Amino acid sequence: MYKIIVAIDGFSSCGKSTTAKKVAENLGYAYVDTGAMYRAVTLYFIGKHVALTNPREVAQALSDIHISFRRNPQTQVNETYLNGLNVESEIRKMTVSDHVSPVSAIPEVRRAMVAQQKQMGRTKALVMDGRDIGSIVFPEAELKVFMTADPVIRAQRRQAELLAKGEMVELNDILENLKKRDHLDTTRAESPLVQPEDAILLDTSFLTIEEQVELVTGWADARIARLNRLSEAHRKV
Ligand SMILES: Nc1ncnc2c1ncn2[C@@H]1O[C@H](COP(=O)(O)OP(=O)(O)OP(=O)(O)O)[C@@H](O)[C@H]1O
Ligand SMILES: Nc1ccn([C@@H]2O[C@H](COP(=O)(O)O)[C@@H](O)[C@H]2O)c(=O)n1
After folding, report:
1. Residue 92 alpha carbon, nearest atom of ligand 2
2. Which residues of 19-44 are buried (b: 16+ CB within 10 A; e: fewer)?
3. CATH number for position 122
4. What is the rounded distance in angstroms from the CA atom of residue 227 to the CA atom of residue 63?
5. 68 carries a ligand binding annotation
6. In a domain, 220, yes or no
7. N or C: which end of the chain has fewer CB atoms below 10 A?
8. What would the mean pLDDT of 24-33 be, rounded to a whole number?
9. In a domain, 235, yes or no
10. How many structural domains are present in the chain?
11. What is the domain extent for residue 191?
12. Is residue 237 part of a domain?
């Protein structure tokens, strides 16, 4: 069976990781949330008061950081570990959301994360979501999806999620954070968020989670079937 890479990019909180996780499950593929990697770096930088404009401090901090993902046996969900500590819940808090975009715009940070991400994709059978997966990390990905949704709907969904975890945040604060991050992410000099020309656009504003998962899984199945047919035809020649 042909194995592919599914690259999912898009704006903040439009459903990328929720969709990517379920599509990976459906395909029996590994899933990597690259936003979690940038969030873990940010958590470390905040804790160590790393000066973002000091290249030596940034390089030292990056060499001290080890990020990994481990499956929680109870929830079956991949959780993020920073230097051996589970930081899954810490990295989702607003403090990290407020600082992550400037940290992820630093070229040295991107180089370090992209190198690890490329390694993770060397055996394919991977669904990865982020901001530069189809454009920089895996420009050769067999399926690229670019997700978007109305900003107010995105903020409402994120607010409900934070509330369920006991964090009460004003809708407007979330909306401002989303808009600010989208602006920084799309305008930064180093690998900005762009929709690759060969990506399929998916607006989730009026879709249910099940509908968006079904769409992306269907596109992936179609790509795999086509590549299987091509390789079979090639084998027969
Ligand atoms: N179609 C949908 N309908 C309702 N809620 C949704 C839908 N898609 C995603 N959500 C919810 O919206 C929230 C944000 O989704 P998710 O974390 O997947 O977005 P994301 O694009 O990965 O965000 P980020 O870029 O900030 O990591 C989650 O609480 C998720 O359950
Ligand atoms: N490939 C990526 C992924 C993420 N970022 C930055 O991290 C922030 C948090 O990402 P979430 O997916 O958890 O929202 C995001 O706003 C980007 O600044 C990135 O640069 N590249």
Report:
1. 13
2. bbbbbbebbebbbbbbbbbbbbbbbb
3. 3.40.50.300
4. 40
5. no
6. yes
7. C
8. 96
9. no
10. 1
11. 5-230
12. no
- How does pLDDT run across 35-57, given as a tens digit for each residue? 999 999 999 999 999 999 999 99
Considering only CA atoms, which residue is closest to atom 7 of ligand 1? 209
Report the alpha-carbon angle 232-233-237, nearest 5: 115
**Does 26 have pLDDT greater than 90?**
yes
- How far is CA 102 from its chain centroid? 16
Tokens 């407007």 locate to 172
pLDDT exceeds cutoff 90 at 92: yes
Dist CA 91 CA 29 (whole Å): 24
State yes or no: pLDDT of 234 exceeds 90.
no
Q: In this predicted model, what pLDDT tens digit does every residue of 140-162 receive, in sequence order?
A: 999 999 999 999 999 999 999 99
Q: Collect all residues with Cβ–Cβ distance below 8 Å to 100 and sequence separation of at least 6.
A: 35, 38, 39, 42, 181
Residue nearest to ligand 2 atom 1, measured at CA: 130
Residue 148 has a pLDDT of: 98
d(CA 25, CA 63): 32
What does the block give as tokens for 75? 């929830």
